Amino acid sequence: MSPREATNATDFGPTKELSKWIASVQLEDIPEDIRVRAKYIILDGLACGLMAAHLPTCEKAVKALAALEPADGGDAVLFGWGGKKVTPLTSALLNGTFIQGFELDDWHSEAPLHSNSIVLPALLAAGQHLQKERAVSGPQFLLATLVGFEVGPRVGRGLHGAHILSTGWHSGAVFGPSASAASVTKLLGLDAVGVEDALGIACTQACGLMSAQFESEVKRMQHGFASRSGLMAAFLARGGYIGIKNVYEREYGGFLKQFSGGNGKTPQYLPEEVSKGLGTTWQTNSIRIKPYACVAAVHGAIDCVRLLQQRYPARFQPAAVQDIRKIHIQSAPVNFHHGGWKAARPLTNTGAQMSATFAAATQIIHRQVLAAQFSTEMLENDEVWKLVDLSDCELAPDYPHGQHQVTITFADGTSASQLLKNSRGVLPPLTNEEIVEKWRNLTKDIMDPEAVKEIEEIVLSMDTLEDISPLYQLLSSKTTNSIA
């Protein structure tokens, strides 16, 4: 047995089964509706990255990391930075930061991670680096993307999905290195042994503290860390570097064992989920597109308010809002632990987008929760803060994941209540047509309209293209700060 194949476990377990599937799957093995949906998901991710590229936190990150780059730059572009090039690892990190930069990007409803911010930056960086050897075709890129979309959630399900948020880990930053490594190994054409090495190298880099959701700016970057880690892992494996074998199911120091420690679950972790349903059950179907610019855990609270506004329009007219005396938000455990904390001044836009109290108050005052509602000026809106001060959140331990109830009490002693099992974007999911509308709305005022049109055409016809290299330069088109 060669060193690359050596292991202390000779059985054919979930890690090897997953690695074999990654190495062997072909685009024609994936149903057409899944392939089509993936193109629209990609378009949404690019929209999120382009609109956030010049937010203050993103610009700060670019300037800090650019100081570490070689004087002659690199071979990978940054979204929206007018042709600026950096090394592939920095490109993956920063473009991942951009896509996650404003809480508008996709999320997986069962094993929460933001797939686009992990997979796309790694693949785009790898594709540009590979131009020295060969062109990357649209079908190759689409297949590699779908591999990442399928792998990340399966790894997450092995850790009981959303429950990991309740234990304080940032789920996507933990699940994510596996997704980006899987995608890039597929693009590189590694065999199953090489894939397993890459997954093992990626998993040992996984980390992410959920305390980043409060005052820190690093929450935006943690999926970028995952993108960079998987990219690095794949190229190390391509170079023959040996990774951890059977990394998911290993008992001592294995990925699932370590990240599930103290989670209170029986069984503690679920290794079979890592490879369950490969080729028959498509996790891409559970990738959701956000209609609101905030963490998905508070979307249900926003929708409860929105439905109350529709049911009782007179109660929510600007002059009548002053009669609100209390806003009581009840939410399921994961939603509560992630977004059920009460906002307090001073608050960054990251914190505001993570708080159910701030999001619900924003919906009441502004009747929408989009990027514009989190500008510096809006974060100091006294009308919103008056309602935040009247709000509280309660853990509803018996609620299933995603369920919320909002009860609003008025000055005359009456109240109105709305219970919602799932938010818009989950049930119903946004349609492909709605995703295109979101793409156009997010990009229309920040970049050249012709570039917007060309990117849309390339992405939605990706499965027919022999070379996607024109996309690289288009994504580097100069953008402006979307909330300036």
TrEMBL record:
Entry superkingdom: Eukaryota
Segments forming domain MmgE/PrpD C-terminal: 292-463
The MmgE/PrpD N-terminal domain, residue ranges: 17-265
Family per similarity comment: Belongs to the PrpD family.
Annotated protein name in UniProt: Immune-responsive protein
Lineage per the UniProt record: Eukaryota, Fungi, Dikarya, Ascomycota, Pezizomycotina
